[in-house]
Amino acid sequence: MIFVENTVDLEGPPSDFYYINEYKPTPGISLVNEATFGCSCTDCFLEKCCPAEAGVLLAYNKNQQIKIPPGTPIYECNSRCQCGPDCPNRIVQKGTQYSLCIFRTSNGCGWGVKTLVKIKRMSFVMEYVGECDPNLQVFNVFIDNLDTRLPRIALFSTRTINAGEELTFDYQMKGSGDISSDSIDYSPAKKRVRTVCKCGAVTCRGYLN
User: Fold this and answer.
1) Side by side, which strands form the sheet with 2-5?
2) Is 2 helix (H, G, I), strand (E, B) or coil?
3) d(CA 137, CA 103)
4) Residue 109 annotated as binding?
5) What CATH class has 1-11+31-178+187-209?
6) What is the pLDDT of residues 92-109, one digit of tens each?
7) Domain spans of the chain?
8) Is 101 part of any known ligand binding site?
9) Residue 49 known to bind ligand
10) What is the DSSP secondary-structure string of 59-124?
């Protein structure tokens, strides 16, 4: 359940906002969500699992917290794997496990998202289906669709996030060295239409792009 809160003004929830928990392709476009390989592990935490097949390390520790550096792709177990739903390599596909709230910000940023419960550091928070001093980091995740052009975008906490705190991430994704950085516009600033950032962070660059 997603809550909506406005204690700032009389503005109602965005009329064109729809909450979705998976990709919604444009009409006429179909996504092939069929993995080309799957594991037969009895213990995916100890054995060479799907990440090893993809040439990367298992992304999570035993507490379901991410342990790999930003920019490293995540390969979770998929529909071809013989492991069950409690597999330690099935985190993002379970969806968010926290109560979140869409709320009206008081600093002119419009609508934001905050957590209603405490979130431990390095935990999966939600998918992205910013701010200059973010508490979330972006990772590319591959489950059934292994096309590197079509990752699922997951947000993990960079520190402990207290209940009631706004969830933020850096739109420029500084430090992410994987294909997500291909979406960044590196053209000269004077040739870009720049969006003013109102995050209020001490380290704010002034613009989102």
Assistant:
1) 2-5, 100-104, 111-115
2) strand
3) 21
4) no
5) mainly beta
6) 999 999 999 989 988 887
7) 1-11+31-178+187-209
8) no
9) yes
10) -B-TTSBB-SPTT--EE---TT----TT-TT-SGGG---S-EEEEE-SSS--EEEEESS-B-TTBE
